[in-house]
Structure formats: C-alpha cells, structure tokens
User: Fold this.
Amino acid sequence: MIAQNFRHALFCAFITLVISYPILGLNLEAQGISIKLTGAETQTYVGIALAVLIVFLFQLFRPAILGGLGRVKALNPLVDRQPMPQEKRIRFERVALVLIVLGAMFWPFIASRGAVDLATLVLIYIILGLGLNVVVGLAGLLDLGYVAFYAVGAYTFGLLSQYYGFSFWMSLPIGAVLAAAFGFVLGFPVLRLRGDYLAIVTLGFGEIIRILLNNLTDLTNGPDGIGGIPDPTLFGMEFGRRVKVEGNTSFHEVFNIPYDSTHKVIFLYLITLILAVFTLFIIRRLIRMPVGRSWEALREDEIAARSLGLSRTAVKLSAFTIGAFFAGFAGTIFASKQGFISPESFVFLESAIVLAIVVLGGMGSQLGVILAAIAVTILPELAREFSEYRMLVFGAAMVLMMVWRPQGLLPMTRVHINLKKQEAGVTDHA
Amino acid sequence: MLVLENIHTHYGKIEALHGVSVEIQKGEIVSLIGANGAGKTTLLMTVCGDPQASSGRVLFKGEDITHKPTAQIMRSGIAIVPEGRRVFPGLTVEENLHMGGFFTSKQEIRKSQDHVFELFPRLKERRNQRAGTMSGGEQQMLAIGRALMTKPEMIILDEPSLGLAPLIIKQIFEIISTLRDDGITVFLVEQNAKQALKLADRGYVLETGRIRLEDSGANLLANEDVQKAYLGG
Ligand SMILES: Nc1ncnc2c1ncn2[C@@H]1O[C@H](COP(=O)(O)OP(=O)(O)O)[C@@H](O)[C@H]1O
Ligand SMILES: [Mg+2]
Assistant:
C-alpha cells in the first residue's frame, strides 16, 4: 500500500518536473536576429524544486490530506443552510433585486470616478451574463463563442459612427438587432448539433469573427481598431468639454454648471444601469412566457418536448437569437464606454468569463448571475498586484465552488406557473 | 385513421424496417407486439417523422405525413407517450401537464387537466411534486396524462408497462381501455404481449423489421406461434 503510494507519488513529482522545467526554467531570448536559450534565475529553480516536493508529499499522504479536505467542507460557510421555502425565496429574490437597483442608482454620486467606471463594466458583464444565461442556463445550449455577438454589437456601433456618424442611441438598437441576426443565421446550421459539438462549433465561430475583424483591414482597420467612438448623449446634450457634433449642446453649458469630467462617467453608468435593468426585466418576462417554458422543456428532455409538438430548431433558435441580441446590446455600450475597440477586446477569454459568471451564478438564476458578475469583475481589480495570476485564482475559485456549492451561488428557483392565479391576472415570480 | 404503407426506415445504412404495412381504424385499440430490437420504437418514430421513412407512405386522416416535420405531425392530432416515460424531471406534475397543453388555450388546459386528474386521482394528489421524484408508475401516468393534454385523436404508447409492477401495469392498461370510450384511437406497442393482446381489437406481430402476423387480438392470443414466442409456452 505504502509502496504503491510511493511509486505513484514519485511518478507525479516527475511529471511536475517535466512540465514545469521547460516552461519556467528555460527562456528564449532574442539576441539580434537569433534566438538563444537561457536558463532562469536560481529563484525559479528553487520554486520548481519546491513545487515538485509539494506534489510528491501531497501524493504520498493523499488519503490523510483528503480526509482533512472533508473537514474543510465541514467548515464551508454555505453548507447547512436549508433552502428557503419557495414563497419566501421568491420574495427574497425580488426584494434583493429592487434593493440592488436602488442602491446602484444613488451610489455613483458618492463613489470615486474609478469605482463608477468599474461599476459600468460590471453592469456590462451583468447584461452579458443575463443574455448568456438564457442560452446556457435556461435552454441548456453550451455556447463558447458568445463573445462573437458582443463583438458584432461593438463593431456595428464603431463602424456606423466612423462611416456614417451614427450616434449611440441610433446604433444601440441596430447593434443589438444585427447581433441577433448573426445569432439567427449561425444558429440555423449549428443548432442541430448536440452538447460538445455545439460547444466546439460556437467556439470556432467566436474565433472566426475575431479573425475576420483582424483581417478585414480596409473595413475594420484590423488590429489597430476603431477609435473616436462617441459617448451617449442626453437629449442632444454632450458631456465633453466641447461639443463635437454640430447641432448638439453641451450638458454643463445648458445647466450652467462648471465642466466636470465625472458627469460623463456617471451618466454612462446610469445609462448602462437602465439598460441592465431593462435586460433583467425583459428576460424575466420571457421566462414566464410560453417561449421561456419551451426553453426549459427542451433542456429538461428534448424528446419529450418534441413529442408535444415543440419544434427543436425554433426553440433553440429563439434562445440563441435572444442571447445574441443582449450581447449586441452590451457590445454597443462597451464601444461607447471605451471609445476605442479592437479585435483584442473580443478574445475567447471574454466568452470564458461570461460563461463563468453564468456557471458561478447557478445556471439559470438571475440574482446569482448578478452577484457572480460583480464578483468576477471586481475581485481581479481588488487584487491588481496578482493580475498575472488572475486565471489561477479563477481556477481555484471554480474548484472551491465545485467542492462547496456545485449548484452555483444561487441555484435557480424554478418559476412555478399556476394556472388559477394566472387567470386572475396575477403572475408568479421566480 | 393511420395507415402505414410498405415502410422502409434506415439508420444510416442499416435498414431497421423492411417494408411494414399497418392500418388502424378510428376508435380501435391496436397492439403491436415484438421482441426487443424488433423495430417497434423505430416504427413509432417513423410515424412521428424522426427518422423519416426512406420509402413507403404514412397517412394520417387521409393526409400524407411521411415527410412532414415532427413538430407539425405532433400538432396534428397524434400524441405519443415515448418509451421510458420521459417526464420533465425538474418540473412539477402540474407544469408537466401544462407543457402538454402548450398549443392550446388556457381554458382548454383547465378542462383537460381536470379530465386527466379524474383519470388519475393520484396525479391530483401530487400536483405540486417534482416529476423526477415520483415512482415509475406515477411517472407513466403523468406521461399519459401529458400526452392527453394535447387533445389527441390518436394516442401512441411505446411500452407503457416497461419496468412496472404487475399491479400498476393492470391499472395502466385499465386506463388505456377507457381512452377508447373518450373516442381516442389507441396504438399500443408492447413486449408484454398477453395484456396488450387482451386489450386490443386487433394486433400485429413485428419480427426483425417485418410484420409476421396480423389478426384480431383474441386470435393472436390463441395462436400457437405467438404463444410459443411471446407468451412463454
Ligand atoms: N438511433 C439508432 N441508430 C442506429 N440503430 C438504431 C437506432 N435505434 C434503433 N436502432 C436499431 O434498430 C433496430 C430496432 O430498434 P428499436 O426500434 O428500438 O426496437 P424495439 O423498440 O422493438 O426494441 C435495432 O436493431 C436497433 O439496434
Ligand atoms: Mg423500443
């Protein structure tokens, strides 16, 4: 038993060495036109040796350590909380949502400029998370290329503003509808595929869009991106120091207050907040409508759903299209916030982050998605010094989640649709 | 009501049905029996259009439905209770039933639900229970109830007795026989030949993708070959 453990531990330690030495211990350095292989600093070698030792010891004493992990599980603060009864939970979720929105409305006036700017980003991720939640959480379609639709929204605005001088408000619906159209067109051939295949094809689609944006240099300016994307206006009032578009007025002149650059940040934040609430509201309605129930039926059992006359393609397409619509929405806002977009903003990592938000949030639960979006966006900012280890922390958080709370932060409460109440004009809530 | 004319069905290159013809009149209970792998499920799925027949015709109420999309067929008055019940496990009993009435009005859902609860008082007791947590028999009742919610003229059942206790099977078959009184045509597919043939007006025996025998239910029950092969002597 011990001997077997020992051999296994030795083997694991060896693998660790084989993997870590070439990656960390060897460096390629460019010297003029040739590339030279150099070693790393002694510190790195000590690190590798330490890692090998740790792996060896861990594998050797694995049973004991895993027993300890069981105790960690017992320390889990989230465990042992009885799930609230349905009625109470519904009310809790609704009250929590209203409180969050109210707090979010007044908060920017006391917070710092940087914090408000970050919060805008959080809201964009919330919109993305809520949209992808329809596709992954509700309809059960694993979409790894969600960022493609985000890019379509952003580039729609970028290009329309660059070539035709479109404003934010004109581009917002166009970007969302165009992204939805992309979702629809892509969905048609792709949604016949199941599970893993669907995931791979959507992953490919996300990359194709990014590569196209990179290479259609004449149109999109390639890797250099598109700049000078305008900010949103408020009834024709701009928030910059000087008016850029003819016919517009300037906010600080109309209200006769001194120019302050935070006005713009707060305004953008509030607009994003309104759009996020809009997204939340629309999707909440959809979930309760027949189309929402058909998503769920298809996720629960495809054959059964089809036996009742639901069209697989129509149901999946509706989820995919609606998800893409909100990604386009978020993309337009993102373009406006950044003022500059390039293909680099739309890499696979973005899809992964949004997917992580949905999974962490509990696959289907909207409050969960909101909390997860906040956590996933803010935590890396708080730990800026560790930004290189962002993915590592991310991974660790995921593993802990799987150990502690495999169903997500706030697992979805199903909408119980009650016919009697519905007829009396009262709708149920999730 | 339902006519299958010389149906051939393929899974890729493999032919699972080699020219099957079946006819079901309005108001009949017709049983199709056959061993595991004979092609019973394939036959039913061909009626539903997934997979579609590679040759031959399927007529429902005189209309050719061979190449219609599944969703359209399932909305035209045929309901199927699929093999293995396939209730929506995370939904409650009531929600499962409402999914059955997806394409009907709210008033109709109410009416059919009351009717289903009359047929299966058990489901009424459990209306708020998650379907996944119910017993096999209860799930089968729910699957039948859900199919009835689509207001079918004809109901197709794929091995409803599969994996159920004898007492429950008896109950289920009793319910099936009452469906005819509501004017619903029944096409019952079973391995449980004895019960299925007792109930049936007419029966078919399917063997490796071909119809071997076709007769009244009583005659098939008395048939020596059938007794040997399907009734255990
Ligand atoms: N999806 C499928 N792909 C390929 N072959 C299948 C598939 N489904 C069934 N078959 C084959 O078709 C034949 C009939 O199967 P089936 O209709 O399920 O029989 P039964 O319902 O009578 O048990 C079997 O030989 C089975 O292996
Ligand atoms: Mg079968």
